[in-house]
Write a structure and sequence with these properties.
alpha/beta, D-Maltodextrin-Binding Protein, domain 2, 2 domains, 5-stranded mixed β-sheet, 15 helices, globular
Length: 333
């Protein structure tokens, strides 16, 4: 009896110890899994322009991964469609024109900037090299291509026309084609007279058709916070650490673009996989000059964005940068 009793007690003790060890092992496994778990976010990207470069550099160099974030990139042909996706919740964040935040907040949707991407207006006005136009005013009565009605390129063009004292609707024909390829085809055929282009598109045009086009008007020296990473306030409030991680990753990418040409070239190749090696080298050289060095949305750039958008949508009420710009808060500075 006594022997049987002690055997039962011993068996219970051994079983309890084994269960305890197993629980400890499982706890360590769960903790390890949790510590390495990544948050997957749906990230909207618009067309193919320089605003996406810091995002792809952050992906390539493992900067998102270091923040335990996995990016699911979703491409959109234009900012308007991406805005709808952001408002509807089918994407979490997007890299697009900063003026969408002004529009959204005027419509009761609280949108916020996580980090700025560029420093200047990104567009140039391109014409065939054999045309003798000398200024934007010379295009009065002519046809000019933009990416889409209400787009960043459309707003910049209309603002500039109004600055000349002209009417963009009466004095010009402004056409939205949805992309640089269609616009360039119209330029080549003579169906349109000028094209709102971007730095990467113009570099590619120069490489493919040297001397065929020239820049009539260049906005790229005007301070303007044209592109930023944007999210809705409620998403950011629910995911504060993820928002901080996104801002940190892109900030580090912007720093690398300024200091490491090899990293920049890898990012350019990811963004433009079909482009030539010479294009990659050229754009990688130009990118640091036009992209943000510190993620900041400058006060002059922010005010210029409001000025441009309200010139074409005067009913929009201005917003304060401090109310919508979370960059410094997310970066802890």
């Amino acid at each position: 009896m006594t022997h049987s009793k002690f055997s039962a007690v011993g068996l219970w003790a051994r079983t309890a110890k084994a269960v305890s060890r197993m629980a400890l092992i499982l706890g360590l496994v769960v903790a390890a899994t949790t510590s390495f778990a990544q948050t997957k976010i749906k990230f909207g990207l618009i067309g193919t322009n320089e605003s996406q470069l810091p995002i792809w550099v952050a992906v390539n160099e493992g900067l998102f991964k270091a923040e335990k974030i996995e990016i699911d990139p979703i491409s959109f042909r234009g900012g308007g469609v991406a805005v709808q996706a952001l408002v509807g919740g089918s994407i979490d964040l997007a890299a697009f024109a900063t003026d969408h935040v002004l529009r959204l907040n005027n419509r009761g949707v609280e949108a916020r900037y996580l980090i700025g991407i560029d420093r200047f207006i990104t567009h140039i006005l391109v014409i065939p090299a054999n045309k003798e136009y000398k200024s934007l005013r010379d295009l009065k009565g002519k046809k000019i291509v933009v990416s889409a009605p209400g787009s960043y390129s459309d707003n910049v063009l209309r603002w500039s026309i109004k600055e000349l004292g002209l009417d963009p609707d009466k004095d010009f024909t402004i056409l939205g084609t949805g992309g640089a390829t269609a616009g360039r085809a119209g330029l080549d055929s003579g169906q349109v007279d000028a094209l709102m282009s971007t730095t990467p598109d113009f570099i590619n045009d120069e490489l493919e058709s040297p001397g065929k086009y020239r820049i009539l008007y260049d906005w790229r020296t005007i301070p303007h916070s044209g592109q930023a990473v944007v999210g809705k306030k409620d998403w950011i409030d629910k995911n504060p650490e993820v928002a901080k991680g996104v801002a940190r990753a892109i900030y580090k990418a912007e720093q690398l673009i300024q200091t490491d040409p090899a990293v920049t070239q890898r990012g350019v190749k990811k963004l433009f996989p079909e482009r030539s090696d010479e294009f990659v080298k050229r754009f990688a050289t130009v990118a640091p000059k036009i992209l943000s060095t510190d993620g900041k949305i400058s006060s002059p750039g922010f005010l210029k964005m409001i000025d441009i958008l309200r010139s074409v949508e005067p009913d929009l009420k201005p917003i304060k940068q401090a109310d919508v710009d979370l960059t410094d808060k997310l970066l802890g500075r």
